[in-house]
Amino acid sequence: MTFVNKCVCGLRVFSGEYLCTTSRKFYSNPSYNHGLTGCGKKGRKQYFVPENLKPKAEVLFGINPVLLALKNGRREKFHRLYIKQEAWDIDNDNEGVQIIKEIATEKNILISYVKAGVLAALSGQRPNQGVCLDAGKFPVSRFSGDEKQIRDSLNNDRTNLSPYPIWLLLYEIQDPMNVGAILRTAHFMGVDQIILTTEKSCKMNSVVSKASAGAMEVMTLKNLSQGRKGYLSFIQLWKSCGGSVIGTTSSQHPKSESVIDYSFNTPILLIMGNEGYGVEQEILDNCDTLFTVTPGTQEANIVSSLNVSVTTGILLHSLLNKMTKS
């Protein structure tokens, strides 16, 4: 066996096979999954993907992401479904896996029954629940930055039961686990539209899909480009359509207020900021209101802030609760 490449994002490449080693010295993640950082269980076993089973695109993993991706069919193409071999050697009663198999059969998707080690290599050692899917890129359309698009969407693309639409702008959020958790919460809460910044932001990949419990696969996401200029232009367009812009900041900010004290009667654009530096000052200066989540303990200086996905959930729940009662 000839060594070709020392390590390609978690899969040590040899002639004829991909080898995923979980030793502490050599592990990472498959290059076809955007070179995502981190690893699941660590051990000393070695798992490989045979040459004839190599994925062609991105590998989704886990029952919900795979099931919702197949049901909604928004990705460019589905190349192959991988199912844990043992799941069909015994009487498996997992309804989700059975539905996945049925949909894949209907769509004429190639199905391969593989050992758990192959799934481990495909998913980069992440929990896969016995299912992986080789799928095309998830579509994220570009927001055109036109007032008519905003007005049309405000009037027609409603998902929540509140009197006013809520849009969410994710400003340069980088951790795929955070983005996935936010998407899951936003879908559950009925956020009408999610706008993503393109610079310094996480891509919509398989880890995001898994962290969102598959919610990403059913959502319409839009990219906002042109950097700061594009963001500020979008904020002004939103205001011209009669909406209010809410930024988020720390409790120490002089202009911050609690969501509990806020009342409104307009569509809301809620901006959630980067995990480290939050939302830049020029954008905050263009917000109508700045929200903060106040701590419930005198020892808040020990842990001075909340995770961005947790903060998003608190604020969305509070906003929707106030809307439905107004």
From TrEMBL:
Single GO molecular function: RNA binding
SMART domains (UniProt xref): SpoU_sub_bind
Entry-linked InterPro entries: Alpha/beta_knot_MTases (IPR029028), MRM1 (IPR047182), MRM1_MeTrfase_dom (IPR047261), Ribosomal_eL30-like_sf (IPR029064), SpoU_MeTrfase (IPR001537), SpoU_subst-bd (IPR013123), tRNA_m1G_MTases_N (IPR029026)
Homology family: Belongs to the class IV-like SAM-binding methyltransferase superfamily. RNA methyltransferase TrmH family.
Domain of life of the native organism: Eukaryota
Keyword DNA-binding: no
Keywords: Methyltransferase, Mitochondrion, rRNA processing, S-adenosyl-L-methionine, Transferase, Transit peptide
Protein name according to UniProt: rRNA methyltransferase 1, mitochondrial
GO cellular component: mitochondrion
Pfam family, one: SpoU_sub_bind
Location relative to the cell: Mitochondrion
Major localisation: mitochondrion
Origin species: Patella caerulea
Domain RNA 2-O ribose methyltransferase substrate binding: 59-141
SUPFAM superfamilies in the cross-refs: alpha/beta knot, L30e-like
